[in-house]
Amino acid sequence: MKQTICACCIATIAYAIGSPASATAIWSDEFNRSNSNTVGNNWVELGDNNNDVGIQSNALRLRDELPGNPDAAATQVSISTVGFNAINVSYAWAPLTESDSGDYLHAAWKVSSSTNWIELVAGDGHGLGGSGSPYTPANYSLGNLADNTSIDFRFWTDVSDSDEGALIDYVRFTGTAIQAAAVPEPAALTLLAAGLLGLGTVRRRRTVI
């Protein structure tokens, strides 16, 4: 009887916990669209001219300079991470051919309800020196603040000339689904109750004996 009851309990607990969650795609953009002076897909653009932020060769292009910072920028607003934690962002970047060692690409994020942008890249950002450099992959954890909320994400450049900047591709946000404990089905509850009742009966019989 004891072994049967323990087995019932273990089976019910395992059912309630469920299987472990794995990383799930939350939002992504591979920019696989025609060359354009606009980015599309709800990116908010900032540039000196209307051809500074857009699509080039299936990538996001940021170029040109403005007084102060940022020079050129693209922002994705209100990416929902509700129901997820352990948020991660990955992307690939490359310099435009005219960029030099004094030019930088930045990536930053914030909780949508906040005004505090958090830089992902330590120091000055991704250095854009090296004409013709291949794409470089980047991968960052956004930390606990990004869990189960809504976030904004921004790429922006700090350059010294109008033909300098960066290309960005394969932007992807992932997270781990937050799984609530499952409610056991009525049949499982009935089985557990029967087992507990049987245990109580055994104990009463031993007491009488």
Q: What would CATH call the homologous superfamily? A: Galactose-binding domain-like
* Coarse morphology: elongated
Round the Cα radius of gyration to an integer and report it.
Answer: 27 Å
Tell me the β content. Answer: 35-45%
Secondary structure: number of strands: 12
| Ends apart, CA distance between termini | 18 Å
**Biggest sheet details:** 6 strands, antiparallel
Q: Provide the succession of SSEs.
A: HEEEEEEEEEEEEH
CATH class: Mainly Beta
Report a brief summary of the structure.
This protein has helices spanning 2-17, 186-208, and strands at residues 23-29, 43-46, 53-55, 60-63, 73-80, 84-95, 104-111, 118-119, 126-127, 136-141, 150-158, 165-177. With 209 residues, it is an alpha+beta fold.
